[in-house]
Amino acid sequence: MPLSRKDALTFSSVLSEALPYIQRFSGKILVIKYGGNAMVDEKLQASFARDMVLLKTVGIHPVVVHGGGPQIGDLLARLNIKSEFINGMRVTTGETMDVVEMVLGGLVNKQIVNLINQNGGRAVGVTGKDGQSIQARKLHVKVKTKELDEPEIIDMGHVGEVAHIDTRLIHLMLDSDLIPVVAPIGVGKDGASYNINADLVAGKLAESLKAEKLMLLTNIQGLMNKEGEVLTGLTVEEVDALIADGTIHGGMLPKINCALEAVRNGVHSVHIIDGRVAHASLLEVFSDVGVGTLITNHSGEL
Q1: Handedness of CA 218, 220, 222, 224 (dihedral sign)
Q2: Which run of H or E residues covers position 86?
Q3: Where are the domains of the chain?
Q4: What is the pLDDT of residues 263-276, one digit of tens each?
Q5: Under CATH, to which class is 24-219 assigned?
Q6: 3-class SS at 200?
Q7: Do 159 and 89 form a contact (C-beta atoms < 8 A)?
């Protein structure tokens, strides 16, 4: 059925608006952290996969980093392994780490790869252990208790942080016209596996790849002010002020700190976007409006 005149004009207007963005970002690397509702809703899964294929088709190089906390929790429950969290992070014993690797490096990673490939892309899944791409060290967590004057250092087991990223394997895939899909599992100097926060891995990978953009898909509209309005076009200094006055607090702080560190270390812009919106990645990259919060080192950047 042919488009109506109105629909045709809208369609052509959308394509025209996208052109300068395609020209600007062609050949550039975008690191996308994929998580939240976008990973569990079938329609959003399909739209995300098509977005990645379209980005690659117009000459942009997406690198996907994914989470998988709910899927890990589900399998641990089925195996009668108790989940314990401290400061929002999963305590990861050796037994739990086996499940984490099975879910992140196997089940979830390959589902994403398959979705992208089924939509016409050429994706390849890796973990940070492949080629020792993500070198990790044990994360030490300090917890303040009423009983002790000094913070208590808690052993989180196989929870890690990024020590170094070797980008050679990712560049090899990008040069081969592939879409890398990265599970946030690192390897220590002793060969041990470490479960690393996916936002943190995405941020460090964006820094190491000198990415044009870091995009963090979330289950919220973006960063909001105290009146509940979405903020965008923020500089690092403005975000620091929002942290200082308490506007940004609680569970949002780690994600924001990851964004700030990426921008301070050479990533041109960070986008915290609403992954509950179909084709959110395309809307943020190719339109004037966007669907979330933009943070840059300079005001007025795209």
Answers
A1: negative
A2: strand 85-86
A3: 24-219
A4: 999 999 999 988 88
A5: alpha beta
A6: helix
A7: yes
